[in-house]
Specification:
This protein is α+β, with helices and mostly antiparallel strands. The protein has a domain at 19-108 and 141-213 and 308-391 and 430-437: 3-Layer(bba) Sandwich (FAD/NAD(P)-binding domain). It has helices at 13-19, 27-35, 49-60, 73-76, 90-98, 143-156, 202-206, 270-275, 278-289, 337-357, 365-393, 398-412, 415-426, and strands spanning 42-45, 65-69, 85-89, 110-112, 114-119, 126-128, 138-142, 160-164, 168-174, 177-182, 187-190, 193-195, 211-227, 234-240, 243-253, 256-266, 296-297, 303-312, 316-317, 320-322, 328-329. Strands 5, 6, 13, 14, 15, 16, 17, 18 and 21 form a 9-stranded mixed sheet that branches. It has a 6-stranded mixed sheet with strand order 8-2-1-12-20-19. Helix 3 (49-60) runs parallel beside helix 10 (337-357). The chain starts with 12 loop residues before the first helix and ends in a 15-residue tail after the last helix.
Length: 441
């Protein structure tokens, strides 16, 4: 297969810019925003990848937000803070283009043009390859680059009041609205509270929302390295009984070809994997790969995090909506965790923008019920599918491996089924919000 040059998402900058409405602020209004809002259309607790993207999406449609996050950007935007990389599905990429974030990522991403799935290194494989004139399946970005682009877009957005290094010490949700007191004494108000605080969301817990959760008793080892042969824009998912071993294409750097790795190991083995020398770790990785990318070198710092599942029983409450990991957390086996959060952003933005145009209270129960219906089933189905897939490939033994290889080879020969899987990988299944189609609401 000929090598394909890495490229950023293929949505034209001019088209994306045309989708974004423009706002001219009066000197008085500009001064108000510069001093910080005390009231906005929504209050977002959590300004990470999902919370920040939501604030920017709402701003692009004329809605204001106050975003409160205790993180220090000097820390979270530093090069060594987060060594992970994420696959942004093509539908999510269209949303980032439509709200002006993709412009800030130009040249930073590596397209995924091919996904190859195998059961270990045994014969039999499943290849997902879109037609040459189709969109890529997704684009790989280092998380630090995504975080920087979203943060910069939020800082530049005129209707986003970004309050970093701050946290809400008291939040009151009533029939009349939401009021929060911040740790600097400031009081802010909005008709709707949005929790984007991550998997351990204190807002979700305070609201009494039940969560189904369990641990997989596995850790994901995260790193990146250079290799002799080109990855040719292929993402490899190699399944072992201990968990999936994923190789994700990154842009070449000064040292040559480069890929990220997400290596799932038993929790008891995680600390030992982190203590291995770089040379020892690369040798073990090369064994798992069968050497198909050649020699490995220049291992980046390793990190590890426990793998688990959680799913909120409901993603709404009185004047409350959950997005991203506050609502759901899944196994990284299919690389859909961040994309589920971006789908939340697109759906909630459409619900709120249309509600605002109709003159509705943005905390209205009917609006929140629409968001619940739109996202509740989709997130549950994706979560259940990834959990089942992880359990299926985790069954040890030759007989189980033979059955899996037979299934992989069978699916590889059924074109309609492969098309369905590719649509899922692109984030294009189900009722798509307009932003995921690259259109303004």
């Amino acid at each position: 297969m000929p090598s394909i040059a890495c490229a950023e998402s293929g949505v034209k900058t001019a088209r994306a810019a045309a989708l974004r409405p423009r706002l001219v602020l009066s000197p008085e209004t500009s001064a108000l925003y510069a001093g910080g809002m005390t009231q906005a259309d929504v209050l977002i607790l959590g300004g990470g990848l999902v919370g920040g993207a939501l604030a920017v999406a709402l701003d692009a449609h004329g809605l204001s937000s106050i975003v409160v996050d205790p993180a220090d950007p000097a820390v979270t935007l530093a090069k060594g803070f987060d060594g992970r990389a994420s696959a942004v599905a093509s539908a999510s990429g269209r949303m980032l283009a439509a709200i002006g974030i993709a412009d800030r990522l130009a040249g930073e991403g590596c397209e995924i043009r091919h996904i190859r799935v195998s059961d270990g290194l045994a014969p039999g494989k499943l290849d997902f390859i879109p037609d040459a004139d189709d969109d890529a399946l997704g684009t790989m970005y280092e998380n630090r680059l995504l975080r920087r682009a979203i943060h910069e877009a939020a800082v530049a957005a005129p209707r986003v009041d970004l309050r970093m290094k701050r946290k809400a010490v008291a939040v009151e949700r009533t029939a009349a609205g939401v009021t929060a007191t911040l740790d600097d004494g400031a009081e802010v108000r909005a008709p709707l509270l949005i929790a984007a605080e991550g998997r351990n969301s204190p807002t979700r817990e305070a609201a009494g929302i039940r969560v189904a959760r369990w641990s997989y008793d596995h850790h994901a080892i995260i790193s990146a390295f250079n290799h002799e042969r080109s990855h040719e824009n292929i993402a490899f998912e190699i399944f072992y009984p201990a968990g999936p071993f994923a190789l994700l294409p990154l842009n070449d750097d000064a040292n040559g070809h480069r890929s990220a790795i997400v290596w799932s190991v038993h929790a008891k083995d995680g600390p030992a994997m982190l203590k291995l020398s770089d040379r020892g770790f690369l040798a073990e990785a090369e064994k798992r790969m069968g050497g198909f990318l050649g020699g490995l070198s220049n291992l980046s710092p390793r990190s590890s995090y426990p793998l688990g599942f959680h799913h909120a029983a409901t993603i709404t409450g009185e004047r409350l909506a959950l997005v991203g990991d506050a609502a759901h957390g899944i196994h990284p086996i299919a690389g859909q965790g961040l994309n589920l959060g971006f789908r939340d952003v697109a759906a909630l933005t459409e619900v709120l923008v249309e509600g605002k145009r109709l003159g509705l209270d943005l905390g209205d129960a009917a609006l929140l019920a629409r968001y619940q219906r739109w996202r509740g089933l989709d997130t549950l189905m994706v979560a259940a599918s990834t959990d089942a897939l992880n359990r299926l490939f985790g069954v040890p033994g030759r007989a189980a491996s033979a059955v899996r290889r037979f299934g992989i080879s069978a699916v590889d020969r059924i074109a309609p089924l492969k098309e369905r899987f590719m649509a899922e990988a692109r984030g294009e299944s189900g009722e798509l919000p307009r932003l995921l189609q690259g259109e303004a609401v």
